[in-house]
């Protein structure tokens, strides 16, 4: 697969001939995907069939497996999954390698050397604060401990959801733990819960808006997208805490059974072009080519200004993710002892 | 007179072995359909649950279930399901009794029955949010109690996130399910028994203790078991909206590796709007449970109750106790209405907090794709209903007429969809039908066909039960003989005689099927069909007020559709009586 030298013109022609692209689990409000999906179709005239927008990473792999023999509209061409699902999908033989023309800009630590998967974007944990309820806006994790009762919620159940796991892990970093020691995060949430500050319900846009969970801990891009969609009703402030900046990275990959393999490659070229990277930035995600683009001066000032300040964010390795996830999912019930519903 | 080929009336000895294959031909379409679209697709997954990542045999996936965390979650589930099954059973029975035998006007009965149809399918995130908006810490009822009446329920230690709070939420679908299931049994209580016992000097207590309750007991127990199963199943959608409800550890998890879930739909805030397997569906797993334990000999006739008012039964209570009983019925009804209306009001109030006030509603109403996907969903619904009728009416008829001993088997098969999660079904279907001999998923039309077949499977428990319950009320043996003696063929009998007699039952089954189809998400989604539920999921991310409006909208539309069907069904209550046949 001599991809770096791929002639883009012939790739476009081949992709157009295939006449479609099937994506999976791309919420339109997630990382600016709505505009990216529309932009791709507008640019190349290739319609996109976006399956299961709220699907999980595991479901994306399941969909590839179930559709191995299928060339119809239900078979995904490309996936966007959590980091740990990349090696897993490779071991199950579900991916086809491809190296986009901007391959060199992707840090080696964030891609598979053979081109089976490649990091795409990341965010850090932030506080999404309904300021019509909360006056004492927290600036760091320790400030959460001085909030009023029934104020702070997670965006998921830490025994199930990675967004919640990362929140506990980030709290660990901010309270004496490290990427290799997540236990202080559990202790932090126990304190929060014992003080009656923690609300044991999955925080959603609606519960933040209604004031039921006036502070929600969520990815920067989710919190900022909420802020946009609520448009001041009620007013939302998104705070990236000073400490505990832990990056959560996703990866892109092409299915080995893609019905539209050329459209899939073209989609990757689009995502990893400056246009695609800026699309993610417009959705408040930090794209993987950010540093290279910054150096090349190809980030317009207004787009750069939109991005939250995630400087100093740590990107944990796969092994660290596995270990911390284990600590938190198994330790939550015993250490914190409350069920998030 | 045409000699009938019918074996009825002939001694069973005449049924030689030669007849058997022909008789069985009548149920072949049903079993072929069930095998193709239910048994084969799901067997892939069952086999898979005994395999490890490398494909070797293992039981580790099942052993993982006993890990403390999992076990603890199951204990809580069981406790909540048990409490809501008993409480929902009792309250649902009382409400159903008040509505059916309490001397209330007929339109109220129709209204409550159709409402129960929708409410028993109300689940997932919209349900949880509805209660948070109502009795959450900032819910409007909580606030009113505190500011107007000075009652601080949260100060008193109540919280919606406690077990009690969850139980209150669960009752929202448990209670209506009970109303639907138990209604036919209450209908079956004969007025004469009450009168006879009163004539014999029995007190009301004695009537209930020695007559009514013993008669109702099997139905009550069976229904409560069904509710229990329903609670367990629903628990995975209300209790842990973040956990994909269908992703049971036994089937999907790899051993010893809690998988980091790194997507929106893992509950990290992405699953707004509706729960994946469909907002309108909290399908009772307990049906199969009950069937297997044999606790209910006759499956609940929940559907028949919806529109069917048995003819010729006096509905007026005797003069004695009329006042008190009717009063109590009204009281119960009002309490029931308050409980069921308040969360909807809470949702409405929240949806109106959008700025400008009605924008959440106008956004949705002015979106052409809302209506085009709704149209598509209703079209798929109509086709599904048609296929169901064509498949199930002859089957149920034939089983009752000629193969009564096969009934338990057929019933068991119709209950299977209760225990097969939609995600398992859809991946099984895709795997099976993406390759020869039937590569249906390759085209849009093929995918539509597959979608309809999947929905016929999903609605199987409801539709079959409805048809079977309808057949029970007519004397099909005599009707068939009469038709045959007049020279009618099987097609004529089914089309001109049996079908018209089943009109009401079929309509009841039809609107639950419609509710399922309109609300179903998982299957439509993975088959890439432009259904209403999938479209809503597409647009509701990061929105706060619109999903609330949409939840109410689909609740209202479904209720309205059911009301229309109920009215149409009632418009022609005349059954073909077999006058003088006896």
What labels describe this entry?
heterodimer, A: 341 residues, alpha+beta, D-Maltodextrin-Binding Protein, domain 2, 14 helices, 40% helix, 14% strand, B: 582 residues, mainly alpha, MetI-like fold, disordered C terminus
Q: What would you say this structure looks like, in words?
A:
The complex is a heterodimer of chains A (341) and B (582). By secondary structure, chain A is an alpha+beta fold. Chain A folds into two domains: 175 residues, D-Maltodextrin-Binding Protein, domain 2 (3-Layer(aba) Sandwich), CATH 3.40.190.10; 144 residues, D-Maltodextrin-Binding Protein, domain 2, CATH 3.40.190. Chain A is 40% helix and 14% strand. Chain A is built from 14 helices and eleven strands. In chain A, the strands form three sheets. In chain A, strands 3, 4, 5, 10 and 11 form a five-stranded antiparallel β-sheet that branches. In chain A, α6 packs across α14 and α7 runs parallel beside α14. The radius of gyration of chain A is 20 Å and the shape is globular. Chain A starts with 7 loop residues before the first helix and ends in a 5-residue tail after the last helix. Chain B is globular. Chain B has one domain: MetI-like (MetI-like fold, Orthogonal Bundle), CATH 1.10.3720.10. Chain B has 582 residues and is an all-alpha fold. The relative contact order of chain B is 0.13. Chain B contains 26 helices and no strands. The N terminus and C terminus of chain B are likely disordered. In chain B, α9 runs antiparallel to α10 and α16 packs across α23. Chains A and B meet through β2, α3, α6, α8 and β8 of A and α4, α6, α18, α19 and α25 of B.
């Amino acid at each position: 697969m001599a991809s770096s030298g791929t002639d883009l013109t012939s790739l476009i022609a081949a992709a157009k001939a295939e006449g479609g692209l099937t994506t999976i689990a791309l919420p339109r409000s997630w990382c600016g995907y709505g505009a990216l999906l529309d932009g791709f179709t507008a640019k190349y005239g290739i319609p996109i069939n976006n399956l299961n927008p709220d699907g999980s990473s595991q479901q994306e792999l399941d969909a590839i497996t179930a559709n191995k023999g299928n060339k119809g509209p239900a078979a995904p061409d490309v996936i966007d999954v959590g980091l740990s699902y990349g090696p897993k999908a490779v071991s199950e033989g579900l991916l086809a390698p491809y190296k986009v023309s901007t391959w060199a800009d992707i840090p080696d630590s964030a891609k598979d050397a053979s081109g089976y998967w490649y990091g795409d974007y990341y965010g850090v944990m932030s506080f999404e604060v309904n300021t019509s309820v909360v006056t004492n806006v927290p600036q760091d994790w320790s400030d959460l401990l001085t909030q009023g009762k029934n104020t702070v919620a997670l965006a998921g159940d830490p025994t199930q959801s990675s967004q919640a796991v990362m929140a506990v892990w980030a709290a660990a970093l901010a309270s004496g733990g490290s990427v290799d020691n997540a236990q202080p995060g559990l202790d932090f949430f126990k304190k929060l819960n014992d003080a009656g500050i923690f609300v044991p319900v999955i925080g959603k846009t609606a519960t933040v808006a209604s004031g039921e969970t006036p502070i929600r801990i969520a990815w920067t891009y989710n919190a900022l997208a909420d802020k946009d969609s609520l448009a001041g009703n009620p007013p939302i402030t998104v705070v990236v805490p000073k400490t505990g900046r832990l990056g959560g990275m996703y990866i892109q990959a092409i299915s080995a059974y893609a019905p539209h393999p050329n459209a899939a490659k073209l989609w990757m070229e689009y995502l990893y072009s400056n246009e695609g990277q800026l699309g993610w930035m417009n959705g408040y995600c930090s794209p993987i080519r950010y540093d290279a683009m910054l150096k090349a001066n190809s980030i317009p000032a207004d787009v750069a200004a939109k991005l939250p300040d995630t400087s100093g964010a740590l990107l944990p390795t796969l092994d660290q993710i596995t270990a911390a996830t284990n600590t938190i999912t198994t330790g939550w019930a015993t250490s914190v002892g409350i069920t998030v519903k | 007179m045409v000699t009938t080929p019918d074996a009825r009336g002939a001694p069973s000895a005449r049924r030689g072995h030669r007849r058997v294959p022909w008789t069985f031909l009548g149920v072949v379409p049903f079993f072929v359909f069930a095998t193709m679209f239910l048994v084969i697709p799901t067997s892939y997954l069952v086999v898979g649950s005994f395999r490890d990542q490398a494909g070797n045999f293992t039981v580790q996936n099942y052993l993982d279930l006993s890990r403390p965390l999992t076990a603890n979650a199951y204990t809580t589930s069981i406790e909540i399901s048990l409490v809501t099954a008993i409480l929902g059973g009792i309250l649902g029975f009382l409400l159903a009794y008040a509505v059916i035998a309490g001397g209330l006007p007929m339109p109220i009965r129709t209204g409550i029955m159709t409402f129960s149809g929708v409410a028993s399918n109300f689940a997932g995130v919209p349900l949880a949010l509805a209660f948070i908006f109502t009795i959450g810490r900032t819910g409007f009822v909580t606030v009113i109690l505190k500011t107007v009446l000075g009652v601080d329920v949260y100060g008193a230690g109540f919280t919606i996130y406690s077990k009690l709070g969850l139980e209150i939420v669960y009752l929202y679908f448990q209670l209506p399910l009970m109303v639907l299931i138990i209604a036919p049994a209450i209908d079956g209580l004969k007025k004469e028994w009450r009168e006879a016992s009163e004539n014999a000097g029995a007190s009301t207590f004695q009537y209930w203790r020695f007559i009514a309750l013993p008669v109702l007991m099997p139905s009550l127990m069976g229904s409560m078991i069904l509710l229990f199963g329903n609670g367990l199943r629903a628990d995975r959608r209300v209790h842990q909206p973040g956990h994909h409800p269908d992703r049971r550890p036994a089937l999907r998890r790899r051993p010893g590796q809690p998988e980091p879930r790194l997507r929106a739909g893992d509950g990290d805030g992405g699953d707004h709007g509706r729960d994946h397997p469909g907002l309108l569906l909290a399908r009772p797993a307990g049906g199969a449970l009950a069937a297997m334990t044999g606790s209910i000999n006759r499956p609940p006739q929940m559907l028949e109750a919806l529109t069917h008012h048995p003819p010729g039964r006096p509905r007026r209570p005797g003069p004695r106790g009329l006042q008190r009983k009717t009063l109590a019925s009204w009281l119960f009804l009002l309490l029931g209405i308050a409980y069921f209306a308040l969360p909807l009001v809470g949702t409405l109030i929240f949806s109106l907090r959008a700025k400008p006030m009605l924008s959440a509603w106008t956004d949705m109403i002015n979106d052409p794709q809302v209506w085009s996907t709704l149209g598509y969903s209703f079209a798929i619904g109509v086709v599904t209903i048609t296929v169901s009728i064509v498949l199930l009416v002859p089957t149920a008829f034939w089983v009752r007429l000629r193969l009564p001993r096969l009934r338990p088997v057929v019933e068991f098969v119709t209950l299977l969809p209760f225990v097969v999660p939609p995600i398992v079904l859809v991946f099984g279907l895709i795997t099976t039908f993406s390759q020869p001999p039937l590569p249906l998923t390759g085209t849009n039309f093929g995918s539509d066909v597959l979608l309809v077949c999947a929905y016929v499977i999903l609605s199987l428990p409801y539709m079959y039960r409805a048809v079977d319950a309808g057949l029970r009320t007519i004397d099909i043996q005599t009707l068939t003989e009469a038709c045959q003696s007049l020279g009618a063929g099987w097609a004529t009998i089914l089309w001109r005689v049996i079908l018209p007699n089943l009109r009401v039952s079929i309509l009841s089954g039809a609107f639950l099927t419609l509710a399922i189809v309109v609300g179903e998400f998982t299957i439509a989604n993975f088959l890439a069909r432009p259904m209403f539920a999938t479209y809503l999921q597409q647009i509701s991310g990061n929105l706060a007020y619109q999903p609330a409006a949409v939840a109410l909208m689909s609740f209202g539309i479904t209720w309205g559709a059911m009301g229309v069907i109920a009215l149409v069904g009632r418009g022609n209550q005349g059954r073909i009586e077999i006058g003088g046949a006896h």
